[in-house]
Structure formats: structure tokens, C-alpha cells
Write a structure and sequence with these properties.
Layout (H helix, E strand, L loop, with lengths): L3 H8 L3 H8 L7 H13 L6 H8 L4 E6 L5 H16 L3 E6 L4 H11 L6 E4 L3 H6 L3 H8 L4 E4 L9 E4 L2 H14 L5 E5 L5 H16 L8 E4 L6 H11 L5 E4 L4 H11 L9 E6 L1 H4 L7 E4 L2 H17 L8 E3 L3 E3 L9
Parallel strand pairs: 1-2, 1-3, 3-4, 4-5, 5-11, 6-7, 6-8, 8-9, 9-10
Antiparallel strand pairs: 10-12
Length: about 350
């Protein structure tokens, strides 16, 4: 491996001159800078990032832990994280917890040995179910900055990026009501996740506050996402008057469109459907799915900004939560506004 000393010996200059030339220091002439860079390229010189990180006490690398890479929302968020990190001069190391508490814990242990400067993460379903967050609390005790997004916990004092999950379903239900829908059913595949609790509460509150419907909440909890189609079939048998379906994850909305099409429902004339997704995926259904759109790329970028600000600024300033706007996008599965 070629070192700065090797370059200096080859060029017949000091190590300090080589180091400054590679950094385009104004103390070094342009001719020398050009010559140093040409020889460095010819000899395939690469900076020793480990030595630099030890010297500077920073790696310029962010650790990212997401629960599910196949989930379009998390994939979009990861893309936003990578793009913004690159823009700010940081690399990322990504681990996938696969909704496992153990894998999440192992990933933190793997990366918290000095490999990264801080973490961006969304906690796994199993972690929230166990309500065991000691591995995150230990990070904060070690003064390792953490930014949580989407799935967060009030017991962790760190910066957070979220959407207003309560208002997302509250507004979606009011949209159904404005369409004249009288039997609005919520499908929940997210169990007791923090986001699910807020979305269910928004749904219930909207129905309770509405003066245009006397409907009691109807919530269909689905433990296994693979069973959504069967649950929708049963829903139609038990509630044949259903005319609004609100799916609070980013997969079951598509299944609902397919299942209700097969049951000969006219969408959106007979029933309106809203799911959680992003624009590029909504067109996978026919009719095109209307959605509560979470802007994952923006969430990822904001998370990076918050973490880098914490790393480079006042590390002791109070933690904060940033709320990224959602949108409700009308497409083919809801009635057009008059």
C-alpha cells in the first residue's frame, strides 16, 4: 500500500508538502500540486481512512438501520439518506434489521465500535413489541448521536423525523365523508407499532367528530400481511355495505384494489380506497391507488441534516422533532371532487 512517505520519497519532497498538495493548499504552488496528484494517481495512492478517522476523531460515515428493505417507504427513505449524505461529504453503512430486535441490537454493536459517527434508524417491529430500548439508551449514554425516523419512541431522548400520522388518517377519513361514504373500514397490518396506534387514533377521532356519520369504528387487524386478501373477502361478507377502505400500510391498499375488483365492486363508484404509498408505486394498481403519500426521500434528507448538524454543531442543544408534510393524492380509487 502506497503511503504519503512513499510519495514524498518518489517526488523528493517532504511528507508535509505532499499532504498539503493533495489538499490543494494555497501554500503549495500549482505546478507542485499537479505533479503530486499525477504521481499519486500513477502509483494508485489511496488515503488511509482509518488513520484519518483516528486522527480527526470522525469517520465521516453514518450508520443507517432500517427494518425492511423491501418496504417501498424505507427504500425511498434510504435513497434520500444516501443522496443527502453524499451531498454533505458523508458515506453511509446500511444494516437491515428485518424487523428483528436481535439483528437491530447486533447492527448497533457492530457499528458503534468507531465505524460511524452517528446513527439514523427506524426501530424494528420486534423492538417495539418487546419495548426494550436499552441498546439505544446505551448509545446515547456514550454520546453517540441518534436520529430516529418514522417509528420512534418517546422514551428515547434524541432527534426525530416523522409525519403527522394522526392527521394523515384523520384527513383521509374526512375525505371519505366528503364523498358521502357511510361505512369506512380501516385495515391494519402494522400491529401495535407507534405509527399504527396514531393512525388508528386519527381514524377513530375523525369518525367521532363527524356530524355526517353515526358509524362506529370498524378495524380489521391482520397479523400476517399475506392474509389481507382473505380478510377483505370476509369483510365484504360481514359488512356488505362497506363503501370506504383505509389501508394504513403501503402494501394492503394494492391488495384491496385487486380483491374488490375480483368481487365485482366498481371502484370508486361503489367503494373508495386509500392506502399509504408514494407516487411511483401507486400506478401498480388498476384503478390507480389514491394515497396518503409519505415523502420518504425528504424524510431521509432531513434525518441526515439533523444528524450532521448534531455532529458539527452544538452537541448539547435540546433534541427536536421535525414533522415532514404528507399529502393525500386523489387518483383512480377515490371520487373526484366536484
Amino acid at each position: 500500500m502506497i503511503t504519503l512517505k512513499d510519495l514524498a520519497n518518489t517526488l523528493g519532497v517532504s511528507v508535509s508538502t505532499v499532504s498539503k498538495a493533495l489538499k490543494d493548499s494555497p501554500e503549495i504552488s500549482q505546478d507542485t500540486i499537479k505533479r503530486v496528484k499525477e504521481i499519486a494517481k500513477e502509483l494508485n495512492y489511496r488515503p488511509n481512512t482509518l488513520a484519518l478517522s483516528l486522527k480527526n476523531r470522525q469517520t465521516k460515515t453514518l450508520g443507517v438501520i432500517i427494518p425492511d428493505i423491501l418496504n417501498p417507504f424505507f427504500a425511498n427513505t434510504l435513497y434520500g439518506i444516501e443522496q443527502q449524505a453524499n451531498k454533505l461529504g458523508y458515506n453511509i453503512i446500511t444494516c437491515i434489521s428485518n424487523e428483528s430486535f436481535t439483528k437491530e441490537n447486533d447492527s448497533i454493536n457492530l457499528l458503534s465500535n468507531g465505524s460511524v459517527d452517528g446513527f439514523i434508524l427506524s426501530i424494528s417491529q420486534e423492538t417495539q413489541a418487546k419495548d426494550d430500548l436499552n441498546h439505544l439508551k446505551d448509545l446515547l449514554k456514550q454520546d453517540v448521536p441518534v436520529v430516529m425516523f418514522d417509528r420512534t419512541s418517546q422514551s428515547i431522548e434524541c432527534d426525530k423525523v416523522v409525519i403527522d400520522d394522526f392527521m394523515s388518517t384523520f384527513n383521509a377519513v374526512n375525505m371519505f365523508i366528503e364523498e358521502g361514504r357511510k361505512k369506512i373500514i380501516l385495515i391494519n397490518t402494522l400491529g401495535d407499532l407507534s405509527v399504527a396506534k396514531l393512525r388508528v387514533l386519527g381514524y377513530k377521532t375523525a369518525l367521532e367528530k363527524s356530524g355526517n356519520t353515526n358509524q362506529e369504528p370498524v378495524i380489521i387487524n391482520v397479523d400476517n400481511a399475506k392474509d389481507v386478501r382473505e380478510h377483505i373477502k370476509n369483510m365484504c361478507e360481514v359488512h356488505p355495505d362497506v363503501d370506504g377502505v383505509l389501508c394504513i400500510d403501503n402494501k394492503s391498499g394494492f391488495v384491496a384494489v385487486s380483491a374488490l375488483n375480483r368481487l365485482n365492486y366498481n371502484i370508486p363508484k361503489d367503494v373508495s380506497i386509500v392506502g399509504f404509498s408514494s407516487e411511483e408505486f401507486s400506478y401498480l394498481s388498476d384503478p390507480v391507488l389514491s394515497t396518503v403519500t409519505q415523502h420518504g426521500e425528504e424524510i431521509g434528507a432531513v434525518a441526515v441534516d439533523m444528524l450532521v448538524d448534531r455532529l458539527t454543531g452544538d452537541k448539547k442543544k435540546p433534541v427536536s422533532t421535525t414533522t415532514v408534510d404528507f399529502t393525500i393524492d386523489h387518483r383512480g380509487t377515490t371520487l373526484k371532487k366536484s
